[in-house]
Write a structure and sequence with these properties.
The complex is a heterotrimer of chains A (288), B (324) and C (354). Chain A has ten helices and twelve strands. Chain A has 288 residues and is of the alpha/beta class. Chain B is of the alpha/beta class and 324 residues long. In chain B, the strands form four sheets. Chain B has a four-stranded parallel beta sheet with strand order 4-3-5-6, with helices on both faces. A four-stranded parallel beta sheet of chain B has the order 9-7-11-12. A two-stranded antiparallel ribbon of chain B has the order 1-2. Classes of the chains: A alpha/beta (288), B alpha/beta (324), C mainly alpha (354).
């Protein structure tokens, strides 16, 4: 990237306190409304987590922020710009996305895959110069997949592929990184590794992170802020420790939840039980 | 339409296989000796060159000299050209792979299919006249002309246009008298079978219903027949018959078995073995089968005006007289 | 053990690819430089190599007149006006079909998409048939409208939400293809004078080489190819699926329209001179992809080259094996391509990709 472009970007970062502002947003597929009355602010440099049961609208919200789904009412502001005025390319320069799963039948190599992340920054007919190559190497180094560069994406493991996709999102040099249930297909070691990576990116590079997660414990351990969605509406939002209370979670998920603290980190962790079932605490048990 | 083992009417019994080579050899000798007479024959032709005529597709064709290297790209044209004696004069240098009559065509270089034409092969024979017909398609004929080859086209669909085609080819090749003679003979033949046909119809009160099966009838195969506008259709009418395919509005078309049963033809002309029809339960309903009036003929003969047509007309007329 | 061996093989994939790209270019160019002279020399007219050389020298611009020897005008016509344009036509058509296959495969996100399978060729053929029957002068334009209509229709029908399921795509392509072919057959029956022309047309082939056909389709090919060149990187992104492509900044609706448009241009140009030739758009890109990978900056030019080589070889075989009878080139590509298609279908199914 040329110095002038870096300057411009730094200026843009400084300019905005809020990364994304959603005001009274309503959205959905075709005629079915999935989300409504969404009011939300994502501050720059934050690590925000979207939680909620299946079908609560987490993925839909993320797709709306990157304009993949149209906004039927309300307004979204992305880094100070009205979303409707931005082209997909404008958005891709500012926001990187890591989907749950990459669905492709074509045998690209890992390096080719990561390089595609530079697309929104390239001029027409250009296939990238040395600077773009350097960014690709850096991104691959950041997620520790440099040694996989020449392997085919159809031949590597799910965890490796997921890291490659993160690397691709990083080559977009985004200010905001969006992840849609990135840990779903990963085993626990890869789950932790990915979250550690995100935390590192967030703390060292100031990258704003918005992640939809299923795992309450991961969310509780890594995220600063949490947004709880239920039936297409924001049920609660705020600092992680405050929002994730036993009562709220029980209301949102319809299960009994026990909140405890991890003696090493001091962060909360959760155990959940269905009500009146074989594997649940006795009925007379009272939560603290 | 190319079944070789079928006994034909219109053509005498084919030469025995072992004599074929001998026959061919004799023909070759004849051909060679005819070469000497070429000039005199042309002089007798009576056509003056250079010559400009309008062919049957209204194209102007100009021949500077009498054509010596003629390529025929339709079987019908080949038969006409041979009938005019051009084969014996060795002036036919190319014929299509489908040209199978007269037997001498075996010695003439093949130029491939009727459509699309193999232009490269045709040009490589350095023809000074290519005789094309409606079946070759306008595009290829135009392209050949564009490439500097003189092409004359004929459109022999009806009896009348076929006779005109013979006359046209006669003029173009300097064989006007021969063509005239051939046309006259065919015309006489037509008049004769027409007279006999009228008598037959008058005696019977109504014409015999005739079904033509192109290629022959086979179990489960569609029946292809001829409609109006072909000279097979015309000949059937002339000989006192009524082509049941006449109601179709295409020259060549498929006919349903249902329609055949409804029309109940008295006579069937087919290219396959009639015995097969006699054995078939469905066909047994037809009066043609009941009266055992299924005849095996070579339909090709009826689509190519030439000396064979005369005998074929005669044969058809006899078949119609024989039938009831 | 087996797994280790496989991994070692794959570790090299990327580095091998770079080497393979250069090798493929060299091999394809070599094929072409052998095939073209062979195709000029062989044919149903027996011309000697020396004679062919003389004719070619004589026909060189500027210096040609300077040669003292004379050439046979008949042979000259055969070489310059029949064989040469035919060779160029078959290379151009092969390249166009192959590239349109590349576009469709990226657009539909599936390696089995191809103009013949999708019904685009049938649409173009119907356009050509209509142009014949109504004496419409611009055959490629009419073919283009047919191709565009057919592709848009197949795309519209087989789209379920944001996805194009491959089974629906193939089925609707085949169904629409047969429907359009049936309409073409019907037209054939109603206008019997032209039916032979259309029949040959549906079998696919280059019955006559003709410079006017070359110049007739060149504008279509150039426009189509230039548009695709401008969007090569977008094609790469489409390989990752529509959602990911959007996330990386592709304006999907616009890109889809542009790609369908340019692919239709290419198919129309090809079909208007050679009829329906199947499977070129499947075989050529697939072979190239196996060697150099799916990135379009190499896939696009190499597929074009491979398609040209393949069709030139097929046509040269078609016009020489049963000489003077000519085999329509469509029969040869179908003979080689259809089994290949079935093999791909089976292989893909085994690996659980649909």
């Amino acid at each position: 990237m040329k110095p002038a472009r870096i300057q411009a970007r730094k200026k843009e970062i400084r300019q905005y306190e809020e990364g994304v502002i959603l005001s009274n947003v309503q959205t959905g597929y075709d005629r079915k409304i999935v989300l409504q009355e969404i009011n939300l602010t994502v501050r720059m440099g934050g690590f925000l987590c979207l939680l909620g049961p299946n079908g609560s609208g987490k993925s839909t919200l993320l797709k709306t922020i990157i304009k993949y789904l149209p906004v039927s009412a309300g307004r979204i502001t992305l880094l100070g710009n009205d979303l409707s005025s931005l082209t997909p390319k404008d958005i891709a320069r500012r926001v990187g996305v890591v989907p749950q799963k990459l669905d492709t039948r074509f045998e690209l190599t890992v390096r080719e895959l990561v390089m595609l992340g530079r697309y929104p920054h390239l001029r027409p007919l250009s296939f990238g110069d040395a600077e773009d190559g350097r960014i690709v190497e850096e991104s691959m180094a950041a997620v520790d997949i440099l040694h996989l560069g020449d392997r085919l994406i159809t031949e590597i493991s799910g965890g490796e592929l997921q890291r490659a996709i993160v690397a691709q999102a990083l080559t977009q040099t985004p200010q905001i990184l969006i992840l849609d249930e990135p840990t779903t297909h990963l085993d626990i070691s890869h789950q932790i590794a990915l979250c550690e990576l995100l935390l590192k990116l967030n703390q060292e590079k100031g990258l704003t992170i918005i992640a939809a997660l299923h795992d309450l414990n991961l969310a509780a351990r890594y995220c600063q802020e949490v947004v709880l969605l239920k039936d297409g509406k924001v049920f609660a939002a705020g600092l992680t420790d405050e929002v994730l209370s036993e009562a709220l979670l029980e209301e949102v998920y319809g299960v009994r939840v026990r909140k405890e603290r991890d003696p090493f980190t001091g962060k909360p962790y959760f155990t959940y039980y269905t009500k009146n079932n074989l594997c649940s605490p006795p009925a007379e048990y009272e939560y603290s | 339409m190319l079944n070789k083992n079928t006994p034909y009417i219109g053509r005498g019994p084919g030469p025995e296989k072992k004599y074929r080579f001998l026959l061919a050899f004799i023909l070759l000798i004849l051909v060679l000796s005819a070469e000497a007479n070429l000039i005199t024959a042309a002089a007798k032709g009576g056509t003056e060159f250079p010559l400009t005529v309008t062919d049957q597709f209204a194209r102007e064709v100009t021949l500077k000299r009498m054509p010596r290297r003629i390529v025929s790209v339709s079987p019908a044209n080949t038969e006409i050209l041979f009938a005019l004696g051009l084969g014996a004069e060795r002036r036919i240098v190319g014929v299509t792979n489908w040209c199978d009559y007269p037997p001498e065509v075996r010695f003439i270089e093949k130029v491939g299919d009727l459509y699309p034409l193999n232009l490269e092969k045709i040009i490589s024979l350095r023809p000074d006249l290519v005789v094309a017909s409606d079946i070759n398609g306008k595009e290829d004929v135009d392209r050949l002309t564009e490439l500097g080859v003189t092409v004359a086209t004929v459109n022999p669909t009806t009896l009348r246009s076929s006779l005109e085609a013979i006359e046209l080819l006669g003029r173009l090749t300097g064989k006007t008298p021969q063509a005239g003679k051939l046309v006259k003979r065919i015309q006489q033949g037509i008049t004769q079978i027409e007279r006999r046909g009228k008598i037959l119809t008058a005696n019977r009160g109504k014409p015999l219903k005739v079904l033509v099966i192109l290629g022959g009838a086979y179990e489960g195969q569609p029946i292809w027949t001829t409609g109006p506008g072909t000279f097979l259709d015309e000949l059937i009418t002339l000989t006192g018959g009524e082509n049941i395919g006449h109601q179709l509005n295409l020259r060549w078309a498929q006919m349903s078995m249902e329609h055949v049963l409804k029309c109940n033809p008295d006579v069937i002309l087919t290219e396959s073995d009639g015995e097969e029809l006699y054995r078939n339960k469905l066909w047994a309903f037809l009066s043609a089968v009941q009266k055992r009036q299924v005849y095996t003929v070579d339909i090709n003969v009826f689509s190519r005006p030439g000396p064979r047509l005369l005998e074929a007309m005669e044969g058809l007329s006899l078949l119609m007289e024989k039938s009831e | 053990m087996c797994r280790i061996a496989r991994e070692e093989k794959n570790i090299e994939a990327g580095r091998k690819r770079e080497a393979h790209k250069k090798l493929t270019v060299v091999i394809l160019l070599l094929c072409l430089s052998i095939l073209i002279p062979v195709a000029i020399v062989v044919g149903s007219a027996d011309l000697r190599v020396l004679e062919v050389c003389k004719i070619l020298l004589k026909s060189l611009p500027l210096v040609g007149e300077g040669f003292a020897f004379s050439v046979d005008p008949f042979a000259q016509t055969i070489i310059l006006n029949l064989r040469l344009p035919r060779i160029i036509l078959s290379i151009l058509v092969g390249a166009a079909l192959s590239v349109s296959g590349v576009i469709f495969q990226a657009l539909f996100g599936n390696p089995l998409a191809e103009p013949y399978v999708l019904g685009t060729s049938a649409g173009a053929a119907l356009g050509v048939a209509l142009a014949f029957f109504f004496n419409f002068s611009s055959v490629p334009l009419s073919a283009f409208i047919g191709a565009l209509g057919a592709t848009a229709l197949v795309y519209g029908i087989s789209r379920v939400g944001k996805k194009v399921p491959i089974t629906v795509l193939l089925l609707s392509g085949v169904a629409l293809g047969s429907l359009l072919s049936a309409v073409t057959s019907l037209l054939m029956l109603l206008h019997k004078e032209e039916h032979l022309k259309v029949l040959i047309f549906t079998m696919g082939g280059f019955p006559t080489g003709d410079w006017s056909k070359v110049t007739g389709i060149l504008p279509y090919l150039c426009v189509g190819a230039i548009i695709v060149l401008l969007y090569l990187r977008d094609l790469d992104l489409l390989l990752l699926g529509e959602e990911k492509a959007h996330q990386l900044g592709v304006d999907l609706p616009r890109l889809q329209i542009i790609l369908v448009f340019s692919a239709s241009l290419l198919v129309a140009a090809a079909v208007s001179v050679s009829g329906i030739i199947g499977f070129v758009g499947l075989m050529a890109p697939h072979f190239v992809r196996l060697i150099v990978g799916p990135e379009h900056k190499s896939l696009f030019p190499l597929s074009a080259l491979a398609g040209g080589v393949f069709l030139l070889a097929a046509d040269t075989i078609g016009r020489t094996v049963f000489s003077p009878l000519e085999l329509p080139v469509g029969i040869i590509t179908a003979l080689t391509g259809a089994p290949f298609f079935l093999y791909l279908l089976r292989r893909k199914r085994r690996s659980g990709l649909f």
